[in-house]
Design goal:
Shape: elongated
Number of domains: 2
CATH class of the largest domain: Alpha Beta
CATH architecture of the largest domain: Alpha-Beta Barrel
CATH superfamily of the largest domain: Alanine racemase
Bound molecules: pyridoxal-5'-phosphate
Distance between the termini: 25 Å
Strand content: 15-25%
Helix content: 25-40%
Structural class: alpha/beta
CATH topology of the largest domain: TIM Barrel
Length: about 375
């Protein structure tokens, strides 16, 4: 089989999505399935739709266009697709054509979306994103009412709702206070303008604990979450704890051994910068003498994965990486040239492997899928 490759078990992804959807629906929360960590994979999108997500979300219009035009994407054509990142002014034509809804924070972009939607004879839906402390995208809460006033006056634009995104830039956790603030802003918009917001989207996978925290959580007006990582990796991103009852091994990375030798544990010669500008610190394990070790090289590198985001199997330790080589030490048995090693991935390693054209994606299809 081709190596390196990602082995993607769609049964496990279905299970994870279905489990989260069921638990969240008991709290009145729907799920937008996020495909951005999977390069807009149609197989994964279809699996999320079979599990019951109400819409799909991706941060790149290129991924959305590819999903919408895919031959095996029949179901996606009739699904609401949300562009998660604010559109570039230079891409509004494609955004109106391929996305039904986009997250927005800049009135100049929304005005251009309005012009373009009028030209294409379509209505483009908007989620206004609100800044609630994480300091990535979002309109400052005190500016929200003025922005809404402008947005609802624009032709061919429909204000579908509001949303927020926490934990991505600064790691600010969703909690009772910031979620209550979002609910309060939704109420304020509705009473000020005498309208109804369909969607109040509370956040991403980092909101899982807040949302499922038993009866204590008052979910208020929040009726949607946008979930990627929790479904694909089965863990929540605040402490990277596994979520009860979910698979954490739905996706595995496999790489092939191209060199296997006994080598000294210590480099010889003067130590300057490595290929990526790092210099070994005096306390680096590579500088302590452990005698001769069993070292192997796997044919995968920094352009395909984040080496810090890989979890090696027992008996194998990752020593370092360059563009195309992953250097490992193995303590048990033999590791022969041509053999394969399988790793678990975190979000950052997954994102890079999914977007690397050098990593094959092998899907295990669902037994009962049509
Ligand atoms: C990436 C992203 C998500 C999904 O994040 P996960 O942690 O993968 O669940 C949701 N909303 C926005 C705006 C995003 O950029």
């Amino acid at each position: 089989m081709a190596a390196p490759r990602l082995e993607i078990d769609l049964d496990k992804i279905y299970h994870n999505a279905h489990e989260l959807l069921t638990r969240l629906s008991e709290r009145g929360i729907s799920v937008t399935g996020v495909t951005k960590a999977a390069l807009g994979s149609v197989e994964i999108a279809n699996t999320l739709l079979q599990a019951g997500v109400i819409s799909l979300g991706d941060s790149r219009i290129e991924n959305i266009k590819a999903m919408r035009l895919a031959e095996n994407g029949a179901q996606i054509k009739d699904t609401e697709v949300l562009l998660l990142r604010s559109p570039m002014l230079s891409q509004v034509t494609q955004v109106v054509r391929y996305a039904d809804t986009s997250c927005n924070t800049e009135i100049d972009i929304i005005k251009k979306l309005s012009v373009e939607a009028s030209k294409q004879g379509r209505t483009h839906q908007i989620l206004l994103m609100v800044e609630l402390g994480d300091l990535r995208e979002g309109i400052m809460p005190e500016d929200l009412i003025a922005t809404v006033r402008e947005v609802i006056g624009l032709p061919n634009i429909f204000l579908k709702g509001i949303g927020t995104n926490l934990a991505c830039r600064s790691g600010v956790s969703p909690d009772a206070a910031n979620m209550a603030k979002l609910s309060e802003l939704a109420d304020l918009i509705e009473t000020t303008f005498d309208l109804t917001l369909d969607v109040v989207s509370g956040g991403n996978s980092a909101n899982i604990q807040w949302a499922l925290n038993g009866a204590q959580t008052d979910t208020g007006r929040i009726n949607n979450l946008r979930l990627g990582e929790a479904i694909l990796l089965g863990c929540e991103p605040l402490q990277r704890q596994a979520i009860d009852g979910l698979h954490t091994d739905a996706i595995t990375l496999v790489a092939e051994v191209i060199e296997s030798k006994r080598k000294p544990s210590q480099p010889t010669g003067d130590i300057a910068q490595s290929a990526f500008g790092e210099t070994l610190l005096p306390n680096d394990p590579a500088l302590t003498d452990r005698g001769i070790v069993r070292q192997a090289i796997l044919a995968i590198g920094i352009q395909d994965i984040d080496p810090d985001g890989l979890q090696a199997p027992a008996g194998i330790e990752i020593l370092g990486a360059s563009s195309d080589h992953l250097v490992i030490e193995f303590v048990k048995g033999e590791l022969l040239v041509g053999e394969e090693v399988a790793f678990q991935l975190n979000y950052s390693a997954l994102l890079r492997a999914m977007t690397s054209p050098f990593v094959s994606k092998i899907f295990t299809h669902r037994q009962d899928a049509s």
